[in-house]
Amino acid sequence: MNVPDRTEHALAAVGIALCALTARVGSSTRRLCPGIDSAVYDAVGVDPWGARLLGVEVTSLTLSWYDGCNWRTNSLAPLVLGCCCLLAAALVYRRTD
Is the CB of residue 62 less than 8 Å from the CB of residue 73? Predict the structure, then answer.
């Protein structure tokens, strides 16, 4: 494994981690949800039947959405950085191929 291979793998791993981090970076109202009795909500904190997108603010890189119980605002900055890392990994792969 040479240096470009390691660089490509490292960029891809960082990109995937940053994209996944998007779901965790943000805030919510954090109120109790006694009316939701769902295994999915207990596991991931989102009611798939009640979730909806409220808006995307491109200038501030934020996403507002409702998880079925709480209103949430997430930063899209990790997603943008993660996509840039994945694009860079693809460019390194194409250049060494």
Answer: yes
Cβ(64)–Cβ(71) under 8 Å? yes
Residue 32 pairs with which residues in a beta bridge? none
Is 47 within 8 Å of 67 (Cβ atoms)? yes
Element (H, E) at 51: strand 51-57
User: What are the helix (H) ranges across the chain?
Assistant: 3-21, 39-44, 77-96
Question: CB neighbours of 17 closer than 8 A, spacing ≥ 6?
Answer: 82
Q: What is the pLDDT along the chain (97 residues), one digit of tens a residue?
A: 455 668 888 999 999 999 888 877 788 777 777 777 777 777 777 788 888 999 999 999 999 999 888 888 999 999 999 999 999 999 888 876 5
